[in-house]
């Protein structure tokens, strides 16, 4: 393929086989719209829900894709050939089959540079159990919980007493609160497990944490230093920040910067940096915390957070004085 002189060729990969396919497409739409075509030659690559890779044509603000289909393997081989012409790949993928190290491993094997964390950090960050085990060993507090693997269908009486009610039942490897339930009565646990296991065989049952919901955005500079943007507090009227609260316009309020004192701000920033380092992340990370009366508790991490213009991660950096196109420039520069 011909490469225009003086421009960086960027392969934007999006879609995917996970339940977050549409969310990924939304993130990619913003990336495609705001990449400066004076600086970048864009190669759009969409992964369909059935795993077929589709090579598109850049229109200048979006992408078009040819009709027709083939097998996932055949299409992936063709896409790899196209990817080898790129200077850097931008995997705008959320959830399993994209954010979990699978696509990162493919890019690593092909020798293609890419935005975001590597294979191990991506896989670890996708698995809530492994994430919390690692960061807890580094002294970052996490919610008490129980792991139920395939075949485990109940929580023991001692664990019920330890966790109390309510609890949250979550697929261990998923995002956007897909498959997550709040359980206020142990009689409803079975139904919550059925829902969670539609998305993962491994399920977490976690104690509720009483605290303010605060997100921190970490950005790695080209020299390896870490910047943490202004804290974002999420306010909503739902029983928890579920899928509808996240993606229904007006259902949640994002307060940037959050109303924090110097000590609280310092605790959150320190915890975000420690999480980034402990997991071995690269490029970017969104770390979601509960700010409680006793301190900071990690809720979850996103190694490839939502990247629509209005998502939390870009909002935070815009509040810090970094417009969305500049944020994209920085992520690509760091990846290269």
Automatic annotation (TrEMBL):
<feature type="active site">
    <location>
        <position position="20"/>
    </location>
</feature>
<feature type="binding site">
    <location>
        <position position="300"/>
    </location>
    <ligand>
        <name>Mg(2+) 2</name>
    </ligand>
</feature>
<dbReference type="GO" id="GO:0008360">
    <property type="term" value="P:regulation of cell shape"/>
</dbReference>
<keyword id="KW-0464">Manganese</keyword>
<feature type="binding site">
    <location>
        <position position="300"/>
    </location>
    <ligand>
        <name>Mg(2+) 1</name>
    </ligand>
</feature>
<keyword id="KW-0961">Cell wall biogenesis/degradation</keyword>
<dbReference type="InterPro" id="IPR011095">
    <property type="entry name" value="Dala_Dala_lig_C"/>
</dbReference>
<comment type="similarity">
    <text>Belongs to the D-alanine--D-alanine ligase family.</text>
</comment>
<dbReference type="InterPro" id="IPR005905">
    <property type="entry name" value="D_ala_D_ala"/>
</dbReference>
<feature type="domain" description="ATP-grasp">
    <location>
        <begin position="132"/>
        <end position="333"/>
    </location>
</feature>
<keyword id="KW-0573">Peptidoglycan synthesis</keyword>
<dbReference type="GO" id="GO:0005524">
    <property type="term" value="F:ATP binding"/>
</dbReference>
<dbReference type="GO" id="GO:0009252">
    <property type="term" value="P:peptidoglycan biosynthetic process"/>
</dbReference>
<feature type="active site">
    <location>
        <position position="176"/>
    </location>
</feature>
<dbReference type="GO" id="GO:0005829">
    <property type="term" value="C:cytosol"/>
</dbReference>
<feature type="binding site">
    <location>
        <position position="128"/>
    </location>
    <ligand>
        <name>ATP</name>
    </ligand>
</feature>
<dbReference type="InterPro" id="IPR011127">
    <property type="entry name" value="Dala_Dala_lig_N"/>
</dbReference>
<feature type="binding site">
    <location>
        <begin position="206"/>
        <end position="213"/>
    </location>
    <ligand>
        <name>ATP</name>
    </ligand>
</feature>
<feature type="binding site">
    <location>
        <position position="288"/>
    </location>
    <ligand>
        <name>Mg(2+) 1</name>
    </ligand>
</feature>
<dbReference type="InterPro" id="IPR011761">
    <property type="entry name" value="ATP-grasp"/>
</dbReference>
<feature type="active site">
    <location>
        <position position="311"/>
    </location>
</feature>
<keyword id="KW-0436">Ligase</keyword>
<keyword id="KW-0067">ATP-binding</keyword>
<feature type="binding site">
    <location>
        <begin position="168"/>
        <end position="170"/>
    </location>
    <ligand>
        <name>ATP</name>
    </ligand>
</feature>
<feature type="binding site">
    <location>
        <position position="302"/>
    </location>
    <ligand>
        <name>Mg(2+) 2</name>
    </ligand>
</feature>
<comment type="pathway">
    <text>Cell wall biogenesis; peptidoglycan biosynthesis.</text>
</comment>
<dbReference type="Pfam" id="PF07478">
    <property type="entry name" value="Dala_Dala_lig_C"/>
</dbReference>
<keyword id="KW-0460">Magnesium</keyword>
<keyword id="KW-0963">Cytoplasm</keyword>
<keyword id="KW-0547">Nucleotide-binding</keyword>
<dbReference type="GO" id="GO:0071555">
    <property type="term" value="P:cell wall organization"/>
</dbReference>
<keyword id="KW-0133">Cell shape</keyword>
<dbReference type="InterPro" id="IPR000291">
    <property type="entry name" value="D-Ala_lig_Van_CS"/>
</dbReference>
<feature type="binding site">
    <location>
        <begin position="299"/>
        <end position="300"/>
    </location>
    <ligand>
        <name>ATP</name>
    </ligand>
</feature>
<dbReference type="Pfam" id="PF01820">
    <property type="entry name" value="Dala_Dala_lig_N"/>
</dbReference>
<feature type="binding site">
    <location>
        <begin position="176"/>
        <end position="177"/>
    </location>
    <ligand>
        <name>ATP</name>
    </ligand>
</feature>
<dbReference type="GO" id="GO:0046872">
    <property type="term" value="F:metal ion binding"/>
</dbReference>
<dbReference type="InterPro" id="IPR013815">
    <property type="entry name" value="ATP_grasp_subdomain_1"/>
</dbReference>
<dbReference type="InterPro" id="IPR016185">
    <property type="entry name" value="PreATP-grasp_dom_sf"/>
</dbReference>
<dbReference type="GO" id="GO:0008716">
    <property type="term" value="F:D-alanine-D-alanine ligase activity"/>
</dbReference>
<protein>
    <recommendedName>
        <fullName>D-alanine--D-alanine ligase</fullName>
        <ecNumber>6.3.2.4</ecNumber>
    </recommendedName>
</protein>
<keyword id="KW-0479">Metal-binding</keyword>
């Amino acid at each position: 393929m011909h490469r225009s002189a003086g421009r960086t060729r960027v392969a934007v990969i999006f879609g995917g086989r996970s339940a977050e396919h549409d969310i990924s497409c939304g993130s990619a739409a913003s990336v495609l719209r705001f990449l400066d075509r004076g600086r970048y030659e864009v190669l759009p690559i969409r992964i369909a829900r059935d795993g077929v890779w589709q090579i598109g044509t850049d229109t200048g603000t979006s992408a078009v894709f040819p009709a027709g289909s083939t097998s996932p393997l055949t299409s992936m081989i063709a896409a790899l050939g196209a990817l080898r012409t790129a200077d850097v790949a931008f995997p705008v993928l959320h959830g399993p089959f994209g954010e979990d190290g699978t696509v990162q491993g493919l890019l690593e094997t092909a020798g293609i540079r890419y935005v975001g964390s590597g294979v191990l950090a991506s896989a670890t960050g996708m698995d809530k159990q492994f994430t919390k085990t690692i960061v807890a060993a580094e002294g970052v507090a996490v919610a008490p919980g129980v792991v139920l693997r395939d075949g485990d269908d109940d929580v023991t009486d001692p664990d019920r007493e330890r966790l109390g009610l309510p609890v949250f039942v979550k697929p261990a490897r998923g995002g956007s609160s897909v498959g997550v339930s709040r359980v206020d009565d142990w009689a409803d646990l079975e139904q919550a497990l059925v829902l969670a296991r539609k998305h993962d065989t491994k399920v977490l049952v976690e104690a509720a944490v009483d605290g303010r919901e605060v997100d921190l955005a970490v950005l790695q500079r080209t020299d390896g230093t870490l910047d943490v943007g202004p804290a974002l507090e999420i306010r909503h009227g739902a029983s928890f920040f579920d899928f509808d609260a996240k993606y229904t316009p007006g259902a949640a309020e994002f307060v940037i910067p959050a109303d924090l004192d110097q000590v609280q701000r310092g605790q959150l920033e320190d915890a975000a940096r420690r999480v980034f380092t402990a997991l071995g992340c690269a490029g970017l990370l969104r770390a979601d915390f509960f700010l409680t009366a006793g301190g900071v508790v990690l809720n979850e991490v996103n190694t490839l957070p939502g990247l629509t213009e209005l998502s939390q991660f870009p909002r935070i950096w815009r509040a810090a004085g970094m417009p969305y196109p500049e944020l994209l420039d920085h992520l690509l520069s760091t990846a290269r």
